Amino acid sequence: MKSKTNASSTLNLTSTITIATAIAAAAPAGLHAAQPQPANPHFENIPFNDIWKHATLYKDPANPLLQELKLRGRYQGQYWDVDADEGSQSDWEDRRARIGIDAKFLNEQLELRTDFQSNNGFDDIYDGLVDAYLVWRPSKTLAFTLGKTKTLIGHYDWLESTNTQPTFERSQIFNQLGVNRATSLTAEGSIEQFTWRAGVYSNDTPSNTGGSGAFGDGEFGDLNGGHAFSLGVGYDLSKSTGLEKTDLRLDWLHSDREPGDLVLGKYDDIISATAIFKQEAATLVIEGFFASGGDGLDSDVYGFFIQPSYDILPGQLQLVGRYSYANSSGPLGVVAQKRYESSVAANGGRGDSYHSFYGGAQYFIHGDKLKLMAGAEWATLNGNGGAYDGVTLLSGIRFSF
Question: Looking at residue 386, what is its pLDDT?
């Protein structure tokens, strides 16, 4: 029997949307580097840009020490309803809630970013650091990053900000890889059309406080676990194709795992390959992953997704679709989406092959900084007589500054 959201969850959904929309009408400035978008003509009388600028606490390019100090934050809330052969559930989730600062120093050669997160229902106002790092840019073509940041794998699905992604959740294949932020030292550079990057990471970096809500439990770890490193290369083919954007990337992550690792602890090696094409209102993303060297049920696995999107009303309405596939060498090496298929899936949410189709839309109130989203994803996970076959309906709000 279907378990519907209770009255308190419905009230949570309504009140959260109301609060987030009210904040958006009075909140400070956006920081994320989204692509410029045309303004929505239905809201042209609302001075969103002026409102968002209030997050800039200080700005003086002539100051040789501190050039800029900004607030940064995001709220992403979503209602989900999964209906499958194996069962049904629905609820509201405060998916992401973060607040922090960005700062630029020393003629913008040094940048600081730090923010912390709350968890679902705001049970813990502080649930660990998300990003906490320094970036040093000795030149326009070279940058070094030290601190807690994203591991350099999965150029689109992982490294693209969730503020600008058009789907509610990342692909199934990426979400089962055990990749997350880590205490790290990375380097990135460019030579004409080529880009490169490399990093070393600590595998015992916690992603949250583990329910304690205490500072000291969700930051950098003690650097005593395993470690990992990554190498990647990219090439900009835009001049050859004549398109606005044609990016190709190949990245490799190797992990020397140890028991008890909190991140990068499922596979020895992960490879990701990415192709992104954009021309005017149309964008196409193709990304694939291969992971090997796992233990037990985590057999070698590969998968990919194909994601087209189209702005049918530029600055207002965008449609997106995604096909995802994954397959493993072992009988239980593919894992269903934690959100939200695993809540009802059989066989522990494991099988050997996965297919899904997602269709959705984004309605932009103030570009990616304030938008409404809706979508549906059908998925099937096969193995041992079938682990999951169902549809997830999603709707929500995304707000960032």
Answer: 81
Both tokens of 305, joined, read 């997704």
Q: What pLDDT does residue 294 have?
A: 98
Which residues of the chain are modeled with pLDDT < 50? Answer: 1-34
Q: Which H or E element spans position 9? A: helix 7-26
CA 22 to mean position of chain CA atoms: 25
Question: In angstroms, rounded to a whole number, what is the distance separating the alpha carbons of residues 205 and 78?
Answer: 27
Which tokens sit at 43?
A: 């809201």
pTM: 0.89
Comparing C-alpha atoms, which of 90, 91, 95, 89 is closest to residue 120? 95
Type of residue found at 296:
G
CB atoms within 10 A of CB 83: 14
Q: Is 7-400 a CATH 2.40.160.10 domain?
A: yes
**Which residue, chain included where needed, has tokens 């040093």?**
136
Rg (CA), the chain: 21
Contact 380, 388 (CB under 8 A): yes
The residue type found at 8 is: S
Domain boundaries, the chain: 7-400
For 74-102, the DSSP string reads EEEEEEEEEEETTEEEEEEEEEEEEEEEE
